[in-house]
Every structure is written in C-alpha cells, then in structure tokens.
Specification:
By secondary structure, the protein is mainly alpha-helical. It has a domain of about 80 residues: Helix Hairpins (Orthogonal Bundle). About 70% of the residues lie in helices and about 0% in strands. It is built from 6 helices and no strands. The longest helix is centred in the middle third of the chain and has 24 residues. It starts with a helix and ends in a 7-residue tail after the last helix. The relative contact order is 0.10. The mean pLDDT is about 95.
Length: about 120
C-alpha cells in the first residue's frame, strides 16, 4: 500500500501529539532539524565520484540510509508547513512559476548560468 504525502500528515501529527512534542516543534527548531537531516543526507554522498553516484541505487545498505534521511527531511518539512499554515502544493507551484520566468527554457536548456 502506498500512501500519498497528504495522507501522512494526520499520522505524523498523531505521533507527535501522543508524545506531547508540539512544545518542542517551534519553527526555528523544525528548520534546524530540516537542515541537520539534509546534512546527514548530503554526508552519504560525501567524496563520491561521478561513477559512484551513478551506481548508488545498487547499494541497498546506502539506499536504506538515504531513504531514512529523505524521510526525516520530509517529516520535519511537513510539520513546519503545517504549523505555519503553508500549503505545500501552492508553494511549490508558485515557486515553479517563478523559476519558469527566471530561467526561460530557451535560454537555460542543458546548461546553467547566473540569471
């Protein structure tokens, strides 16, 4: 069974409430936790050469660790967005449109340059 991201939030909120952790989940703390977990994710790729990065999916142990760190980032992001009343779908679509204007397809296809 695959749950949607939207269906995760009630379960996460219940988990947090059962432990009375709301008191610790201030925006700054959640943002800090996101940064720490993202750094732990990045650490899994530290010193990887291009060839290693291309074969990471074949390393089941590493993939398990990557999935756990991705989940940690998403969990804290869902808590933060909920607590600040941020509609993630709306925020992502707004940012995508902003990036479409900032990085026109014809000008940026296959390359990156400073806007």
């Amino acid at each position: 069974m695959t749950d949607s991201v939207e269906s995760l939030l009630p379960r996460l909120l219940e988990f947090r409430h059962e432990r009375e952790w709301e008191q610790f989940h201030l925006p700054k703390e959640l943002a800090t936790a996101i940064t720490i977990e993202a750094s732990e994710l990045l650490e899994l790729f530290l010193w990887n050469e291009r060839e290693q990065a291309a074969t990471v999916k074949q390393d089941q142990h590493k993939m398990t660790r990557i999935k756990e760190e991705v989940a940690d980032v998403l969990i804290y992001l869902l808590f933060l967005s909920h607590d600040l009343d941020i509609d993630l779908t709306e925020a992502v679509l707004d940012k995508l449109e902003k990036n479409r204007l900032k990085y026109p397809e014809e000008e940026y296809r296959g390359r990156f340059k400073e806007p």
